[in-house]
Automatic annotation (TrEMBL):
Residues 137-218 form the RCK C-terminal domain. Signal peptide: none annotated. The keyword GTP-binding does not apply. It comes from Lentzea sokolovensis. The keyword Ion transport applies. This is Trk system potassium uptake protein TrkA. Gene3D superfamilies: NAD(P)-binding Rossmann-like Domain (3.40.50.720), Regulator of K+ conductance, C-terminal domain (3.30.70.1450). It comes from the Bacteria. Keywords: Ion transport, NAD, Potassium, Potassium transport, Transport. Residues 1-117 form the RCK N-terminal domain.
Amino acid sequence: MRIAIAGAGAVGRSIAQELVSDGHQVMLIERDRKHFDPNSVEQAEWVQADACELSSLEDAGMHLCDVVIAATGDDKVNLVVSLLAKTEFAVRRVIARVNDPTNEWLFTESWGVDVAVSTPRLLAAMVEESVTIGDVVRLMTLRQGQANLVEITLDESTPFAGRAVSELELPRDAALVTILRGGRVIVPQPDDTLEGGDELLFVTTAAVEQDIKTALGY
């Protein structure tokens, strides 16, 4: 894929390096001269420009990109980049970094954002996930905020141990997508059974998150 990254600070460069290593074509757009360092990710295309200016994005060939990542340290900039990418260049997928969790509510379809990634929220979720049993932990918001990836860990004495996945009476807008068991990643089939200590990952709407908890006896 051809991927544009707005912001070539530490975060933008790290993302670029990973994507380049995976064989993608990456373009880094950076306005600040002190962050413009083509030698740091030599395989990427570097553009010194203001990613909030429409003409700069046109000159950079934003319309040729499959994905745009707004990765600056300024939420206002990330929102503008997202909106321009989606509305002016019809970029198929726009991912935006959220620096301040209080601004997360803005990062929606209205601003052109397909996926909002909040580092503080992810770190908090990882902490909660590691110590919480029986509670719903939201890991990530997906696709314009209409669905979430959530996790719930079964305690060792769960009454669902030994019962088949097909026996779970989940709400309509929830799907069990993965079971993490020890070092295994299990794509659940109807006949697969649950065990105490399983970490269950669901894609669901926010409205039924607590219904999942109830369905699992918590």
